[in-house]
Structure formats: C-alpha cells, structure tokens
Backbone:
C-alpha cells in the first residue's frame, strides 16, 4: 500500500527529472554563420535580423529561447544566436571572418542574454534588450523592438 510520503517522494523525483530533461532538451536557435546571408533572409521577410547573445549555462538565456524566441523563429522570424566565449567562426556584416566572441566584443555586449536587431547595412534598428526582463513584459518589449525595426525600412 502506498503511503502519502511515498507518493510525495515519487512526485518530487518525477518533477526533478522532468526539470532536468527540459533543461537539457531546451529550445535551441541556429548559430550565426554568415550575418550578411542571415540579414538578407530577414529583410526578404520585411523583418530585422534578431541576434541573441547567449552564454552557456545561462538560465535567463534558456528561458528567453524557450518562451519567446523559438516560437518566433518557428513562425518565420530570422533569429540567430552568437555565444560568449565561443571560438566558432562567423562572417561579420562586412564579410570578414571572425569568431562569435570577437563579434560580441566588437558590439560591446557584456550581458547575456542580449538581443540585437539589425536592418539594412547591418545597422542596429531598435534598442537592444539587455538582460532578463520580468517574464510578463519580455514578450511585449520584444514585439515593440520588432515593430520599431520593421519601421526602419
């Protein structure tokens, strides 16, 4: 016969395993490889290119990806991710080969997550979203930045 304590222990274990699984299988975004090509795809959709600066292990980055960015990406918004401390190669907006980390340093980004919004010529067309926002307001702020970016062209 199951006792209440046994049921609670089993429920706790299931919850912990579910949380660990969700953290490992969290939503991902494509890594930036060629910013000129990715920008061209975004502009074809009359959208700014959204670049997420992320940091491995950042819970706020994971939350932004899962709750807001991955659904937008699945709906057609071009979103790429660059990773702090990553030596992954990427073409910058001038067609020069660099790394994710060097790109982030050049943009003077020091907080993860940071969202940047790029338009024609690789210029920023909306205010950056730096750090974690209150969950109830993240979506509206993101929508506002996207609308501002669309108005720029």
Residues:
């Amino acid at each position: 016969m199951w006792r209440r304590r046994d049921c609670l222990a089993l429920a706790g274990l299931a919850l912990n395993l579910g949380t660990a699984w969700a953290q490992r299988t969290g939503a991902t975004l494509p890594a930036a490889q060629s910013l000129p090509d990715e920008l061209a795809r975004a502009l074809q959709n009359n959208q700014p290119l959204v670049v997420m600066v992320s940091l491995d292990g950042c819970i706020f980055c994971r939350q932004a990806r899962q709750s807001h960015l991955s659904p937008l990406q699945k709906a057609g918004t071009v979103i790429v991710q660059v990773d702090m401390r990553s030596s992954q190669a990427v073409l910058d907006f001038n067609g020069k080969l660099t790394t994710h980390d060097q790109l982030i340093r050049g943009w003077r980004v020091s907080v993860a997550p940071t969202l940047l919004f790029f338009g024609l010529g690789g210029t920023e067309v909306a205010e950056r979203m730096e750090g974690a926002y209150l969950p109830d307001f993240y979506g509206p702020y993101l929508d506002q930045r996207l609308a501002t970016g669309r108005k720029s062209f």
User: Anything to note?
Assistant: Residues 7 and 82 are 43 Å apart (CA to CA). The chain has five helices and six strands.
